[in-house]
Amino acid sequence: MPKAVWQPQELAQDPHARSDKAAKVRDMFASIAGAYDLNNRVHSFGLDQRWRRAAVRLAEVQTGEAVVDVACGTGDLTELFATSGAASVIGIDFTAPMLDIARVKSSSNLAKEPAPRRGARVSPVYREGDAMALDLPNACADVVTIAFGLRNVSEPTKALSEFRRILRPGGRLVVLEFDEPRNGLIRAMNRLYTHQIMPWTASLLARDRSGAYRYLPRSVETFLDRDRLRTAVLDAGFAEVDQKELTFGTCVLTRGRVARD
Prior knowledge:
The chain is built from 10 helices and 7 strands. The chain is of the alpha/beta class.
């Protein structure tokens, strides 16, 4: 049985302020990796893949471009980019069990695709890595994405600076992240679901004792809201930022563009 990673008294505080946050997040995701995709589908009512497809559209990938998907997890977003027309796609995560699942998924997706169409799909490369210190050269990517992962990074502003570093002039950063709806009634309903119902049912489905699904709503509640995230992206050196609300504001897409020379 997986060990407890997050204690209730720890989540009563701000989990983002903990010095051991990175280790806890890695252990947490290693614990839930096997049931991660199933819980995503069940507890988002299937919307999680729609949100990822919206992220791909907002990235506006052009034929031949290079895409880097950070905090890629089990590869759902990375695999969508594999058929976007990109010339290369790299998925980076710091939890090995999640990457193991992503590689199996990638091989399965390739096998399912009819042979005449395989030229339209690139095979993503999956690497273990740290969002705050990417082992990639300057100006090597046209698109950088991170879905539901920025709040799990120890220093999000440092990660945003890294994303800016590896993007070429004209490159795009797309951040998909949970947020709290601004409508009071919807916010109250969302909090009831995410704080009371989902942690219990998701933990039961995953047979999880790590506290991952109690950490999730708390990490959203204490993270940057959309306005502060927009400011952080601008402060990281992006020339312009636009945002798109999804599903009544439960998720927000934030896109930053790098100025052209």
